[in-house]
Design brief:
The complex is a heterodimer of chains A (295) and B (298).
Chain A: E1 5-11, E2 20-23, E3 44-45, E4 53-71, E5 80-86, E6 96-97, E7 101-102, H1 134-137, E8 144-162, E9 172-173, E10 175-183, E11 188-203, E12 209-228, H2 229-243, E13 249-253, H3 258-264, E14 265-270, E15 276-280, E16 283-292
Antiparallel strand pairs in A: 1-10, 1-13, 2-4, 3-9, 4-8, 4-10, 5-6, 5-7, 5-8, 11-12, 12-16, 13-14, 14-16, 15-16
Chain B: E1 6-8, E2 20-23, E3 44-45, E4 55-66, E5 68-72, E6 81-87, E7 95-98, E8 102-103, E9 141-145, E10 155-165, E11 175-176, E12 178-182, E13 185-186, E14 195-207, E15 213-231, H1 233-247, E16 253-256, H2 262-268, E17 269-274, E18 280-284, E19 287-296
The chains are: A mainly beta (295), B mainly beta (298).
């Protein structure tokens, strides 16, 4: 199976030892610095929706940046994001500028629609443009807007949000990743995706039972195979050593298929310690157990 | 031979029944004898960086076989160096082994061994780890295997002097947690494929009713699990049985499990103990296999 696993493993945005963080304004108890905290339930909320609503990070010095991820945002389907990276505090001469892009992508781009869309009947999950309906949002993993780019060296990162019609009255973001993005360079196998549902079940003496879902989270199992030694020891060992089971990261699997992006772009941690196994001469494999962080 | 596992199983330096130990000078509470104790947190600290020049000195009381030496959990900087001399005269003027001055840190990546994207988050272009990287690696173990030196092999020696040169060390002292000096046993076979290395983590996981998780790391330690197969009768009875009975699951030792590349040497050289008792399995005539799990001591 072809290449496609992107790890966002080394977050500069959340490193509070570096530089400083600002925003266009924040509601009480929802400071911009909450986007640096692992807990999914701690988040930044903008003071209002007046354009431009923004988050800004000064890393204190320049770092390699190959991607940005915005985790658990509340942007509507009309909302847009703009990512700018610069060496200058006024964001002049940016080394990267995404321009205004939609926060939500289509669930099913042309050619990837499921069979039943051919019936001409409306989908339960997406509108005629392929964008997810509100009902779909509670079914999908926590939304992650991400951009992977050719790595640049940058010190200042500014995120602009535009969503004037947002019914919440504010922009909300739980976590931001800025840093390198590493793509696994060979095969994976045994990919499994499941959504764990923790539910409260109640049963009457008559035998009647009723069930209420408490929370759901996505879990992924995947084995990376045939990793050459320089990649295994030069990257993965450092990453596993750094992340352990306690540190958060963003991972995207199979984003060459747009319809999979929603299911396999996760804010997560390893639920088990990955064990690198030497399988052949200077080749390694390791199983990954990835658990979504929800809240 | 590179890539064959090497075990440092029988430490003469830490045997307090033998001879004496001294140094150039100790910081209060950090005597040279701390390098003979298993606990990693009990360390020797030199009284200065330059005056007097720091050294450790060990008189074993008699001559013993010495095939290698290891410095465990040193605080040497990237430019810090050390020199090991072994002699049979107390002044260490007539040496049977002299390492010359060596860097305390070796490059993580040798030439042509760099991972894709040389400007790594973890190492510089010279292959040396960044300061922040060191906390991700196993605790530093700088080991010497005399048989790897073109001019030396195992020697018989009584006096060991280790000199240090790291005058710019920001700590203001040289620190060493543990020293190994004794035989080095190179196994007949490298680890069989299927060997595993991982960094175990003990973490405190908190969960809100919403299912939200957040976690604090308590500690991490490296483990290696591996199989050594086709071990001869002579090696099984003459080394493995003695080794397992000597160390049990409580005694410390040093292993260097894979050193055919610079990176594998860094990751698989551990100050450790056995995580569980080991059984020798006799699989056929003159052939035994051993499954071993090494747990880093942190």
């Amino acid at each position: 199976m072809g290449v496609n696993l992107k790890m966002f493993p080394f977050n500069r945005w959340s490193d509070t030892a570096l530089g400083s963080i600002f925003s266009s304004g924040a509601r009480s108890g929802y400071a911009a610095s909450e986007t640096q905290v692992q807990q999914r339930g701690r988040r930044w909320r903008s003071a209002d929706l007046l354009y431009p609503v923004w988050l800004k990070r000064d890393l204190g010095t320049s770092y390699r940046i190959g991607g940005v991820a915005i985790v658990a945002h509340n942007l509507t389907r009309a909302g847009t994001v703009r990512v700018m990276i610069s060496e200058n505090v006024d964001m002049s001469s940016p080394v990267y500028d995404s321009g205004e892009v939609n926060a939500w992508e289509k669930l099913w781009p042309a050619g990837e629609e499921p069979d039943y869309t051919g019936s001409g009947l409306a989908s339960e999950w997406a509108d005629s443009d392929g964008l997810p309906l509100a009902a779909a949002l509670s079914v999908l993993p926590e939304p992650i807007f991400y951009k992977t780019i050719t790595a640049v060296s940058g010190r200042y990162i500014e995120l602009h949000f535009s969503d004037a019609g947002n019914g919440d009255g504010y922009i909300e973001v739980a976590y931001v990743y800025v840093g390198v993005v590493i793509e696994a360079d060979v095969n994976y196998s045994q990919l499994q995706v499941r959504q764990v549902d923790v539910a409260r079940s109640q049963e009457a003496s008559s035998g009647q039972d009723w069930v209420k879902s408490v929370y759901k989270r996505t879990e992924v199992s995947v084995t990376l195979e045939l990793q050459p030694e320089n990649r295994a020891l030069g990257f993965w060992m450092f990453i596993f050593s750094r992340l352990g089971i306690s540190r958060e990261f963003v991972v995207v699997i199979r984003d060459q298929k747009a319809s999979w992006r929603f299911w396999l772009a996760l804010y997560a941690h390893f639920s088990e310690i990955p064990k690198q196994t030497g399988t052949h001469f200077q080749l390694y494999e390791f199983p990954l157990e990835i658990e979504e962080l929800v809240g | 031979m590179a890539n064959r596992a090497k075990i440092f199983p029988f430490n003469r330096w830490s045997d307090t029944a033998l001879g004496s130990i001294s140094s150039s000078g100790d910081a209060a509470g950090y005597a040279a004898s701390k390098t003979q104790q298993r606990q990693r947190s009990r360390v020797w600290r030199s009284s200065s960086l330059s005056s007097p020049s720091p050294y450790l000195y060990r008189d074993l009381g008699a001559q013993y076989r010495i095939g290698g030496l290891a410095l465990v959990s040193h605080n040497l900087t990237a430019s810090g160096q050390f020199r090991v001399r072994i002699s049979n005269n107390a002044a260490v003027t007539d040496v049977v082994y002299d390492s010359g001055w060596l860097f305390g840190w070796e490059a993580i990546f040798g030439v042509d061994e760099e991972p894709d994207g040389a400007d790594s988050e973890f190492v510089g272009v010279d292959g040396a780890p960044f300061a922040a990287t060191i906390s991700l690696l196993p605790k530093p173990v700088r080991r010497l295997v005399f048989a790897e030196d073109p001019y030396f092999s195992e020697v018989s020696g009584r006096y060991i002097q280790i000199d240090f040169d790291d005058t710019d060390n920001g700590d203001g002292y040289i620190e060493i947690a543990y020293v190994y000096a004794g035989i080095v046993v190179e196994l007949e076979k490298s680890m069989a494929y299927g060997w595993q290395i991982w960094r175990e983590e003990q973490a405190r996981v908190k969960r809100a009713a919403s299912g939200q998780l957040w976690m604090d790391s308590l500690f991490k330690r490296f483990h290696v699990s591996c199989l050594f197969d086709f071990q001869s009768d002579a090696r099984a009875a003459g080394f493995w049985k003695f080794f397992f009975n000597h160390v049990g699951v409580t005694r410390e030792f040093v292993v260097s499990l894979k050193d055919d590349t610079a990176a594998s040497k860094v990751w698989s050289t551990l100050y450790c103990k056995l995580a569980q008792p080991v059984n020798l399995r006799h699989v056929e005539a003159d052939s035994h296999e051993v499954t071993v799990e090494f747990a880093e001591i942190v």
